[in-house]
């Protein structure tokens, strides 16, 4: 008999986040034959994202929309999903390992008295034998876990599982009312975006990242140009952020964001362990560094020893020719 799986989907700027389609694919694997998948989407205006979500085969998409849900808020979002959790009675709940998914997952696990496995990068097997692989020690090792009892709560790292393929069968969209629970103990007063680029670094397929070797804020311009050309996002090492070359919202690493793009281009980054913690799982790593002994070359698939200010413009020009 299959499992009932609840996907807690997410949207950004009224667009469904890619990680939610990856969660849906994971749900399909975990539900098994005869399983049942329901997705829930919470936010201020969710209609557009709900339609995107409903294009993917599942039993139902549940929408909970209200002005007070426009920004993520732990109390409100939990209050919005809890009735759906209680109604669906899931064997498995899947969320993205995102800022809000990380916050919400333990609340749901606690409510269900469930076990939780976080930051999953691979799911193997089916039925009771299914195992979950996750990085530990800042990506230096992996552990494989399995649940001994249900329900299961799982968060998946963006960009690691293959997203769900679109199907023709549109799932029904069901709207659920929402009222703020009382008392509400915290309130989002203002959300101020630090970076002008709205592209989500953690979901980008290509990341062009700069380190101290970029030398200045202006030095990031050729990297930004390359990133734009490749439809990618700009990232940075902590040293580059500390030096004021770019905003901390771009920082990748142990104390920054974790990214797993298809291609990571490290420019003027030495490859300190704290930086590797945020990018070593990238599918293809290209390093440009003028020091041939830089540790980044130990994990790079392709390495270019040379001055990034000569190499990047040449690379950009070559790509423009195509
Ligand atoms: P450097 O180590 O100074 O390397 C600069 C590189 O640029 C050198 O290899 C040099 O050869 C090369 N270079 C210079 N000029 C050029 C040129 N013209 N062309 C090509 N190459 C050139 N770091 C992070 O990145 N993310 C984190 O989240 C993070 N968290 C940390 C947490 C803790 C608790 C601590 C202690 C440190 C953390 N760090 C983090 C800092 C980390 O230890 C390194 O100091 C940092 O990653 C170094 O950044 P970098 O590679 O840009 O600079």
TrEMBL record:
Cofactor(s) required, per the database record: FAD
Annotated cofactor note: Binds 1 FAD per dimer.
Protein name per Swiss-Prot or TrEMBL: Electron transfer flavoprotein alpha subunit apoprotein
Organism per entry: Alicyclobacillus sacchari
Family (UniProt): Belongs to the ETF alpha-subunit/FixB family.
Sequence positions that bind FAD: 212, 237-238, 251-255, 268-275, 289
Family matches, as Pfam families: ETF (PF01012), ETF_alpha (PF00766)
Domain spans labelled Electron transfer flavoprotein alpha/beta-subunit N-terminal: 5-188
Keywords: FAD, Flavoprotein
PANTHER family per UniProt: ELECTRON TRANSFER FLAVOPROTEIN ALPHA, ELECTRON TRANSFER FLAVOPROTEIN SUBUNIT ALPHA, MITOCHONDRIAL
Gene Ontology BP term (one): fatty acid beta-oxidation using acyl-CoA dehydrogenase
Molecular function GO labels: electron transfer activity; flavin adenine dinucleotide binding
